[in-house]
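WARN  no MSA supplied for this record, continuing single-sequence
INFO  ligand: zinc ion
INFO  echoing inputs
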Amino acid sequence: MAVLPSEIIARVKEETDLVELVGRYVRLQPAGVNWKGLCPFHQEKTPSFHVHPGRQTYKCFGCGEGGDAISFLMAVENLTFPEAMETLARAIDLDLAKFLQPGEDEGEKRAHFRANETACDIFRNAWQDAHLGAKARDYLTGRGFHLEVLDRFDLGWAPGGDWLLKQLAQRGVTEDLAMSAGLVRRQDGRGSFAYFRDRIMFPIRNIARQVAGFGGRLIVPGEPKYLNSADSPHFSKGKLLYGFDSTRMVIARARTAVLVEGYLDLIALAQAGVANAVATCGTALTPDQARLLRRGARQVVVLFDGDQAGRKAAVRACHTCLAAGLEAKVATLPRGLDPADLVIQQGAAALQAVLAAAVGYLAFVRDAVAQAGDDRLALEKGVHQVLSTIAAVPDAIRREYMLREAADLFGLTPDLLRSSLAGMPGGVAQPAVAADQTVVAGVAETGRPPAAAAGTATPRPSFRTLTKLHREHVESVLLAHVLQDGSGAAARLLAELGADLPWSTLQATALAAELAAWAATAPQQTPRDFVEQRWHEQDNAYRAYVTDLLAWNIPPRGETERAVRESLQRLRGDRRAQLS
Ligand SMILES: [Zn+2]
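INFO  complex generated
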């Protein structure tokens, strides 16, 4: 997304009813002028999650999560900033396209989604039509699917002939647009024709819930049985996960995703009450899709067919997940059954039992080797397979544990595997990257900053030095004053007297840099507005820190300058004591 002007970001925040928005996820009770409820970001029994309608901010006093409407939606729905903005803007009928600073293909992209969403609507109408959609509905209900579950996934029906072209034209989608959106094809001697004909339609949405493309399934014998929208700049099968737009929240809560291969598999799982599933669009899991999954899941359970092709696909999917920093397990279906068959023939409990029996990736490979005869060749192949996967795991600690487990399973010494690993291409890990990714994962997992973000050794307290905690507190007092001083005098004073001061946490360092940027550019806004408009470029921990400081009760004006000078003196004295 191109850059949005800060006035628009401010307007979206202003016009969004934060209490209403949070209320969709949290049962809120009035508490004075504020509201409180059970925090959606950590487990708790007594409410410590507060919403302040006046300030348009929220804050959890249990886990520290805090921010505004945009960061709330980002956190609770695992959205990026542009995705959250898009969602909120839609809700207040604001068309962000008008405000985007010109990006060349913005218009084309929006047109793509408009065409596909219109088509989705048209396919839905056909599905619900007494005559047109009867065949499709009967076919799936005949296989044991429930209509209300199918409707939940917006299934549609694409009739044959020129029906779609006529409908699209009536709804203002030109033939050229329909073509570039992948809905219509043109051929010499044949003219224009609908790409999907006589197929059950599965809309594939991106994470902002826009229809990016479709999968279409024949219900009569023919080839290909499944047809997907052709890849285009705005639809890429390898970058989207079917169902993720609606199952993401459940996945984020469970920290686990169940991965299946097909659209109907996912719907069958939903029907059996397994709501944390995603499906690839009939292709092998890609690294892009695994990274997408990491936005909610820590672990993936691969649920594939029990035949040899299914086992191979499962190994590949596990490799991709582990290489993306996810933990991976495999649940194996009884031979000859796909997930839909299992659910419909044997019920939800049978599916639960299969999922509960999932084994870790290494044990799964070892088991496959045993089934292949357990001879030396099969064992060697298995060892090489797991070593190539272990080499791709970004986290050094997980790599080491996996290596020891593999040594145990295959009856070799860890030292031997370690030396084999070192000789493999890409087998030498980059510790800096791995460490960094681990920290990021930690933040995403708990939704709060890692403890002691400064990460430096605690200075030994002496009668002149502050303890680390105390120093952090003095810094917070100082920054809270500066942030809340609407006149900007405190920010200018800090820029003048404290420019070279080292800060003890990453959050304080970042905030001080923002305040310095305010002082350097002297914009019309107050320091607080300036900081808030730019805080989406920072992480959760930073926003939580700033929200905290904004909630502090700062004494009335006049005291501010003295407080700032005093705090600076204390920090400077402390610094000198540490250096001496
Ligand atoms: Zn919390």
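The pocket of zinc ion is lined by residues 39, 41-42, 49, 60, 62-63, 65 (CB under 6 Å).
INFO  checksum written, moving to next record
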